[in-house]
Specification:
This protein is an alpha/beta fold. It contains 18 helices and 25 strands. The longest helix is centred in the N-terminal third of the chain and has 21 residues. The two termini are 22 Å apart. It catalyses: (6S)-5,6,7,8-tetrahydrofolate + formate + ATP = (6R)-10-formyltetrahydrofolate + ADP + phosphate.
Length: 555
């Protein structure tokens, strides 16, 4: 099995050639008209999530790709739905976001870099609104009874698809009077932009424009909220995003279809691929394999409480990815030594896995634990995890997609297909952590207690004011998007394992009225990451052949 022409991939997906917009020979956009055809598959949704990872990640994307490959080898119609990689992590800590080893997406270099231009379009749409906001400030434009924008109350920053800590706090408008109104501003990474979240959650062009128009950019001099519609930016932003809203079609290294579309982070955004790509997958396949970023406490909870509410669908089964090294880290082993044999640390780390299984049980989801196998894992420690899961009544399966591609994921594919098929008669009923009608602070507290295991939540005075303001504006009924470290169940990245007797501190709550949620920032979470001391960019090089070396960790 190997890659095939992109039109052949589209045919396997059941998409007419008339609805395929090729971007070169090996990637394409799918016209939204393809979403109007009748369903051709059973559309069983499979969510792939994970335990809290080490900084290098635990291979959730590699597992998702391997699972799709394995199902295809079993002659099952599987469609893979993943997020687009951001250049920030590609050149930062993790490297490329297209899997690894023999479980990869192709063309990996294109996907990891500019792909079809979606993220650039999203950055441009975001910054068009920024420019129009500052233009309105410069000309002191009045918006009817609301009045003019108060430059001191502008909350809409700028966006860049790069990790650059120097841009977290900037001053704009310096120079002459003609150069604008001086004020403090900020850059967010594009993956944290509300425009990215809107593209991921929009159900079509009309919904996209409505959501963009609802974006709140700040306040007027009278204290009224000013929106993108007030500024007059929504229509032009929608035009910039005309193609970006269309799902991207690529393939696995074994030729199976993969819809890779939208890329919100899961620690500082909602962490799911687009609603439109998922809908297309559900129309086309018997099994739709999608992942939510980072651990189940972050992307998994948001997938269920935000994306599933928006779509009106619910997963049939949860695949929970774990690695021996991450379990040992959660058992107290230093990260740099977590790959070494340490049965005691592994046993202690299993309590962390237990917490995620408890959370999955709260949602009523059947679970298959996928142990992503690394070359230095020992048989004894792998058997220890399998025995612990057997005692709990959960099936644990080894996955060697990285080393062996689809062949290394056959057992996982069989287990997941069996678990999903078993729900045909009675699919899991949707269940959520909170009711939308509850106050924002109660929703946040429920997430912290139910999913993180916290005793409660401490709200700073600023967060209390934010919550009151959002509710006064009539947006109290939105879901909550928690911005939290991915390395711990708590808001402290150093607190590993299954912590107890802790509080989560919320320092700020931002309204994303267009996306339709409120972002609760905890701990030291930043919406513009920085590069590490030795960024992955140091490994990247264009070769004389035109190939790019160093984008993937295994290059």
């Amino acid at each position: 099995m190997g890659p095939q022409g992109i039109l052949d991939v589209a045919r396997e997906l059941g998409v007419s050639e008339d609805h395929v917009e090729p971007y070169g020979r090996n990637k394409a956009k799918i016209d939204l008209a393809a979403l109007t055809r009748p369903a051709a598959g059973a559309g069983r949704l499979v969510l792939v999530s994970a335990i809290n990872p080490t900084p290098a990640g635990e291979g959730k994307t590699t597992t998702s790709i391997g699972l799709a490959m394995g199902m295809r080898r079993l002659a099952k119609r599987a469609v893979l739905c993943l997020r687009e990689p951001s250049l920030g992590p590609v050149f930062g800590v993790k490297g490329g976001g297209t899997g690894g080893g023999r479980a990869t997406l192709v063309p990996a270099d294109d996907i990891n870099l500019h792909f079809t231009g979606d993220i650039h379009a999203i950055s441009t749409a975001h910054n068009l609104l920024s420019a129009m906001v500052d233009n309105a400030c410069h000309f002191n434009t009045s918006f009817g009874e609301k009045g003019a924008i108060d430059p001191r109350q502008v909350t809409w920053g700028r966006a860049l698809d790069m990790n650059d800590r120097a841009l977290r706090n900037v001053i704009v408008g310096l120079g002459r009077k003609a150069d604008g109104v001086p004020r403090q501003d900020r850059f967010d990474i594009t993956a944290a932009s509300e425009v990215m979240a809107i593209v991921a959650l929009a159900d079509g062009p009309e919904d996209l424009e409505r959501r963009l128009g609802r974006i709140v950019i700040g306040q007027s001099t009278s204290g009224a909220p000013i929106t993108a519609d007030d500024v007059g930016a929504a229509a032009a932003m929608t035009a910039l995003l005309r193609d970006a809203i269309k799902p991207n079609l690529v393939q696995t290294d074994e030729g199976g279809p993969a819809l890779v579309h939208a890329g919100p982070f899961a620690n500082i955004a909602h962490g799911c691929s687009s609603v439109l790509a998922t809908r297309l997958g559900l129309l086309s396949g018997d099994y739709v394999i999608t992942e939510a970023g980072f651990g189940f406490d972050l992307g998994g909870e948001k997938f269920l409480d935000i994306k599933c509410r928006t779509m009106g669908v619910f997963p049939r089964v949860l695949v929970l990815v774990a690695t021996l090294r991450a379990l040992k880290m959660h058992g107290g082993a230093p990260v740099k030594r977590a790959a070494e044999p340490d049965a005691r640390a592994l046993e202690l780390g299993l309590t962390h896995l237990d917490k995620h299984l408890d959370s999955a049980a709260f949602f009523g989801l059947p679970v298959v634990v996928s142990i992503n196998v690394f070359p230095n894992d020992t048989q004894e420690e792998l058997a220890l995890v399998e025995a612990a899961m057997l005692r709990r009544g959960v099936r644990a399966v080894r996955c060697e997609g990285f080393l062996r591609g689809g062949e290394g994921a056959l057992e996982l594919a069989e287990a997941v297909a069996s678990a999903a098929d078993a729900t045909d008669a009675a699919p899991p009923a949707p269940r959520f952590v909170y009711d939308l009608a509850e106050p924002l602070r109660d929703k946040i507290t429920k997430i912290a207690r139910t999913i993180y295991g916290a005793d409660g939540v401490t709200f700073t005075a600023a967060a209390e004011r934010d919550a009151r303001r959002i509710e006064e504006l009539g947006h109290g009924g939105v879901p909550v998007c928690m911005a939290k470290t991915q390395l711990s169940l708590s808001d402290d990245p150093a607190l590993v394992g299954r912590p107890t007797n802790f509080q989560v501190t919320v320092r700020e709550i931002r309204l994303s009225a267009g996306a339709g949620f409120a972002v609760a920032l905890t701990g030291d979470m930043m919406t513009m990451p920085g590069l590490p001391r030795e960024p992955s960019a140091l490994r990247v090089k264009l070769l004389p052949t035109g190939k790019i070396r160093g984008l993937m960790q295994n290059d």
